[in-house]
Amino acid sequence: MTGRQDDVGRTLRSLLLEETSAMPVDTHNAALGLRRRIAHTRKRRRVTLAVAASVAAAVVATAVGGWLGVDKADDPAQNPEQPEAVAGEFLDAYGSFDADRALTYLTTDAIAQGVVEEDRTTLEQLRLGIASERALGYKQTIHGCEHQGNSASGVSLRCAFDFHAIRSDEIGLGPYTGNYWSLTVRDGKIVSARREVEFMASGFSDQIWEPFHAWVSIEHPDDVVAMYTDESNERVTEDSNRLWEQRTAEYAAVVTQNLDAYPLDQPEVAAYVAQLESICSAAQANLSEEIQAIPDPPNQPAQIEAHERIMRETIPQLRALTVPEAVRWPYEGRAFPLMEAFSQFGNVNKVPPDERQLETLLLSRIRLIPGLDKC
Predict the structure, then answer these.
(1) Mind listing the pLDDT tens digit for each residue in 61-99?
(2) Which of 23, 123, 260, 307 is least surrounded by CB atoms within 10 angstroms?
(3) What is the pTM of this model?
(4) Domain 83-206 has CATH 3.10.450.50
(5) Which phi and psi (to 5°) does residue 155 adopt?
(6) Mind listing the pLDDT tens digit for each residue in 105-146?
(7) Where are the alpha helices (DSSP H) in 238-331?
(8) What pLDDT score was predicted for residue 8?
(9) Which residues pair with residue 151 across a beta bridge?
């Protein structure tokens, strides 16, 4: 044992002797007091006492018949982990739609305050909300949790994530960035959990939410009231969840239909595609002129910025055309949103200019669509 370990041992032994020498005591309050004192000591010796505190908890539980025992309705079955680990486990459970496991990390107060949304304040509402995420095709990728500070409420964490929803991954859009979870962890439990989504700035609203809402409104108008509380919020019930799962799958299939299914032999569709080609050809000529005027070529960041800007300028011209009903949703639900995603990529993702790369995957998806191969 090192000198530091011996010092830790003496600290813990002193704390244990103080608590046990005055017995009988209110064991629950004694345990809470011991936990607070160990936490205070941990601030001075973070690395060493992180392990020692777990040892102390086990010793106390054995010595006094379970001072630190947990309540089944409100506490995990195992000893509390570090806050980051607790947050990670909760987010993994939520992202895999495992409501039972997610609930083991939440206090009743956290649920009462609303988890994720302010109106999810009961177990039933939270379970329905998690089921709703599955129905919407929600997928999240967590990029780690940053410590935001300590308070009487607990340890505050901010966990950044990207997400897909309404089957955006199947459509070829997203993931959508700039989102985060705000979690507060105390004594191995989450006492507050809120999710902040960049609904507008990430492009999700323009590229996915609004086109899907338009499609439902036109193709399935009788479902609107059952699926939405208003244009910006989904209704969360068992019946609405079934509809969301059904309609999002149908929508993804409609907007990603095989190119061979495009009825290019129809005069109206052929004329529309020709109009798209004309606009895109003009845009391509403008881009070539701008690239030639860039000093000291090849200046890749400048070329990429020019390409994105001209795409932004071209989209309104394309959208102004009347889309034939036979191909309406492949263009309004996928082609134009793909162009929006490409044209806004630098702004949305905040990539430093010297690290920019042309988004060739998005561009290739755009250019495979009839009429857009020159855009």
Answers:
(1) 333 333 233 333 344 433 335 899 999 999 999 999 999
(2) 260
(3) 0.75
(4) yes
(5) -95, 125
(6) 999 999 998 888 777 889 999 999 999 999 999 999 999 999
(7) 238-255, 267-293, 300-319, 328-330
(8) 40
(9) 154
